[in-house]
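Colleagues,

Please find the record for the two-part complex below.
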Amino acid sequence: MSQLIRLEVLRVLRNRRYLFFTVVFPVMMFFFYASTNFGTESFNGVSPKTYYMVSMATFGTVGAALNTAMRIALERKSGWTRQLRLTALPGWAYVLSKVAAAGTVTLPAVLAVFAAGVAEGVHFPLATWLGMGLAVWAGGFVFSAAGVALGYAAAPDTVQPITMVSYMGMAFLGGSWFPLSGGLKTVGQYTPVYLYNELAKYPVNGVSVGASQVIGLAAYLAAFAALAAWLYQRDRKTV
Amino acid sequence: MTTSTEAAVTQNTTGADRKGSALRGADGRPTEVAAFRDVSKDFGAVKAVHGSTFTLHPGETVAFLGPNGAGKSTSIDMLLGLKDPSAGRVTLFGGTPRQAIMDGRVGVMLQSGGLLPEVTVRELVGFACKVHPRGYAVDDVLKTAQILDLADRRVDKLSGGQEQRVRFALATAGDSDLIVLDEPTTGMDVNARQAFWSVMKAQADAGRTILFATHYLEEADAIADRVLVMHKGRLIADGTAAEIKARAGQRRISFDLHPQDGGDASLLSALPGITALDVSGHTVRISTSDADATMAAVYRAGLYPRGLEVTGVGLEQAFITITAEATAAEGN
């Protein structure tokens, strides 16, 4: 089991495209926003820099988690999942290793964006940094579950566009690119990335946990995990 | 051969030891490696496998022979528990396929077994060694599969033939009692194929039971102790390669005997070379291993065959002969 996780972590760290989208791209976007003069003191109660630091950290994490979808779809097609079923590893080990690998490689993405934030003059007490980091990291598992579900939903050529559209759509409705208002906010505030961004910004104002965000994200996690479990079972019957 | 890590099992188990232990279970009774009992698999209206029954015994090297679409891969999938049979029962080492795999008793090389990209050959094979309950040291496995020189290459940068050797290494990463190979030499040139089978023979000589699917008659002939021929989902022949060849090399004779021509038809069963005789009405059908001797004897006996036909096939057409027989039998 730990062997498979090790292999999966090695693979994602070696994948340059993956590192670009989860680490380099969010950091670049953060620097871009940090250099923009928004002419305002506050976005939803936090400074614009803090706002974008958090939303770019979550953007990278969601990207890392949804990347799981493409990998699972490709490995189902190549027959690697069949090969794994012929080892002594239990069936769920494969899915667990994917989720664990996504959870592991998310950390550099979060750390890189936070480091960029420090470089741009964002400063908080240590407890706030830890709280934000923990919220970003833990919230990422919601999207890992979604990634697993997507990976078992269809063939690679279908999974790729679906993943990209969901990724960009969720980031847009989640307020990752700009603070939502009006009708967009009415809809967007119930989407998973919005809840995720809000949760990750909570520690900034000294409140430890946002109960409604935690409940909302837990509901999404349960829904994605149930969907993933169902699609996984379906896949094992048809292979 | 010695192993470099303590956890790994040594690979020099002698054939006699393995055969002895595999033949008898804990209670001293003979055990079987794998058994199909009246196994069928339907995909909708398509019967991929139809009423297949056979047993694999410890130490045998068995070829699963048949054209594409004969049901070989489906049978192997059921043997390994990747597919459940629609009817009948499949056992591996007396239990479920899954249990046998969990116990590390089966090494498998799938026809299209995916390999993991972005890792090196050593990392991938090392992983297989570590997850196998009785895994060998990775260097020993690479050496046996003759891919020590590829150890540090990325898996996604290999040629087709090299990939097949890596798949073979995955199948032999541990001390398995049964090795299953689904068309292992697909995509290999003649030299690679010969090298592959010499490596495989060493596995058989170590006493392992080997089941391989192929559509090359020569491979079955050269490697297997026993050949199972599949055609249209049915197991139509089960015997040694020599028996299958004899069957393919036979001549079929047919003629009519009219009562007014005289002669004693009861002499027919005593004809030389005859392996099967079928008399229906005036028509006589004979299978013989020596058509010349049989026909000479027919004339010597004073019989007067009319409408004589003698048909024969070469070795290459073994399939056609055997499968045609099967189709005819199906018609009856």
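The mean pLDDT of chain A is 89.

Comments are welcome before we finalize the supplementary table.
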